[in-house]
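Backbone Fold Data
Goal — fold tokens
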Amino acid sequence: MDLKNKKFFIYNGCDRGLCLRGCGRQDRQLNTYDWLADVPGNAQSTDLVEVQFKNTRKGYYHNVNNLDLRKGDIVAVEANPGHDIGVVTLTGKLVELQIKKANLKSADDIKRIYRIAKPVDMEKYREAKSREHATMIQSRQIAKSLNLQMKIGDVEYQGDGNKAIFYYIADERVDFRQLIKVLAETFHVRIEMKQIGARQEAGRIGGTGPCGRELCCATWMKNFVSVSTGAARYQEISLNPQKLAGMCAKLKCCLNYEVDNYIEASRRLPSREVVLETQDGDYYLFKTDILAGLVTYSSDKKIASNLETITAKRALDIIELNKKGEKPMSLQSDGDIKEQSNHSSDLLANESLTRFDKSKKKRRSKSRPARQAAKGRGKAPSADKGQQKPQGGDRQEKAYKQ
């Protein structure tokens, strides 16, 4: 039976699974473009092969049996204990570069490829994968009963079903020795615990960010660096926790994307401590537009008063004049006034977000004519207005006669 032409379904954590052509979300995230694929003898230059499993997990193996392997082949590889099932994602010289990138220095870390997966292997694989969701739900209940401050995010069974990897999230160190004993007695498999971060958990689940795009951690980002509030301060972003936090409840990774440009551009701006002296008075730095190269000064040090926006070059020129003991007439110059008038127009502020929406027609109430008719019947003629008595007047008169 030709297994290469048979469309097997390999699970990788998302609903679609890991297809042979590499079209899944996790495939795009871990994809390594083999730009040496068309070079003659590239695949035979080394016996090292890169194999991908579930949850962005990759491994590197020796092709000791000299199998004709290509990208997308499903193989059975050596595991401890038993064997595992994965998909070949890279062959040739680029695998050696990937191994250096993964810091695998010991030869013991590189195991062997047994064979191309047989139908019997795939049946065991499907049977093991079908138990993952139920195992995750039950393991969460066990961890809760043991009062452990941790969250089990996913479970990955080995291809032969002899081992299970439990991915968990915890803010502090957790002693899960008792948990491992209970899990081993409950599921009768070998247990391995792997801690993942909140960003890795968000990337595994996926979603859409506030920008409207798919999460970076779910598409292309593999290495997660620490993000501090200093990145927001350099870009002069308001420190609002709700806006700065991503889907993982941590600071957004995109805060680091442009922080280097802001740091470099801020070096060309005047310091906040420098006071500009003019014949009109002293001016203090109020705010800056770093990328546009504009600075706004206030005549009062504590509040916004008589705000003047000038270019950074004009501010530096005034500082040089002050060092020489000279004071200009004012902050503004002809060039700055023109630039400010062109810069101050804000198209988004002048337009409504609902300007293209169709106005909804108000529906007339069905009970409105009936109410008007009732009001018309209840009204008395205008001539008899003077003869009308209060409603309780007759009762009061009768009570007085008695």
